[in-house]
Write a structure and sequence with these properties.
It is a single chain. This protein is of the alpha+beta class and 196 residues long. It is built from 4 helices and 10 strands. The strands form 3 sheets. The chain has a 4-stranded mixed sheet with strand order 1-2-4-3, covered by helices on one side. A 4-stranded mixed sheet has the order 5-6-10-7. A two-stranded antiparallel ribbon has the order 8-9. A hairpin with a 2-residue loop joins strand 5 and strand 6. Helix 2 packs parallel to helix 3. It is globular.
Length: 196
């Protein structure tokens, strides 16, 4: 099974090319023009064992919003495409990840329906070149384009860098769990018979 996806998206605001392998080793090549955002996506890739190649040219002279949101759209599309018909996958995944003072819970359901519950109050408005309010926008975009439930709760934390990093790493671990296979699941894990 080749669980990969290559997605390209070009608008007047962004030009994005992304490759994703759900069955990788955590290798990444990421260039969004926002150093801290790159760092977060590299953490997602490394700890989820996803291979990720991403190139983004966005209108950063305006601000980072379009770059971050559109990257979420494209990543969500890639997750959906790479997961295919979802036969044999666990569907659900969760992880509680500590990062020094930060403790983040992330739970996902590849159910075909978008929903985001994001509960995190960052202490700073910005880390590096990334406005922290855009982290929610990113996961909102991933949720809607992938058709997945995402619940993110910051259980503890003071340092904004640690909190943000815990979120992306926990999401990677939870998604790896959800997209993983289980020999007991011979079809689609749903009483409806569909996760579309």
């Amino acid at each position: 099974m080749n669980r990969t996806a290559e997605v390209k998206r070009k608008t007047k605001e962004t030009d994005i090319a992304l490759f994703l392998s759900l069955d990788g080793t955590g290798k990444s090549e990421v260039s969004s023009g926002i150093g801290f955002f790159d760092h977060m996506l590299e953490g997602f890739s490394k700890h989820g064992f996803f291979d990720l190649t991403l190139s983004v040219n966005g209108d950063l002279h305006v601000d980072a919003h379009h770059t971050v949101e559109d990257t979420g759209i494209v990543l969500g599309q890639a997750i959906k495409e790479a997961a295919g018909d979802k036969k044999g996958i666990r569907r659900y995944g969760f992880f509680i990840l500590p990062m020094d003072d930060a403790l983040c819970l992330c739970a996902v359901d590849l159910c075909g329906r978008p929903y985001l519950d994001f509960s995190c109050n960052f202490q700073a408005e910005r880390v590096g070149g990334l406005d922290t309010e855009l982290i929610k926008e990113f996961f909102q975009a991933v949720s809607y384009s992938a058709g997945m439930n995402i619940h993110i709760r910051m259980l503890a934390g003071e340092n904004t860098h640690h909190m943000a990093e815990a979120i992306f790493k926990a999401f990677g671990k939870a998604l790896d769990n959800a997209t993983g296979t289980d020999g007991r699941i011979t079809d689609i894990l749903s009483t409806k018979g569909s996760l579309a």
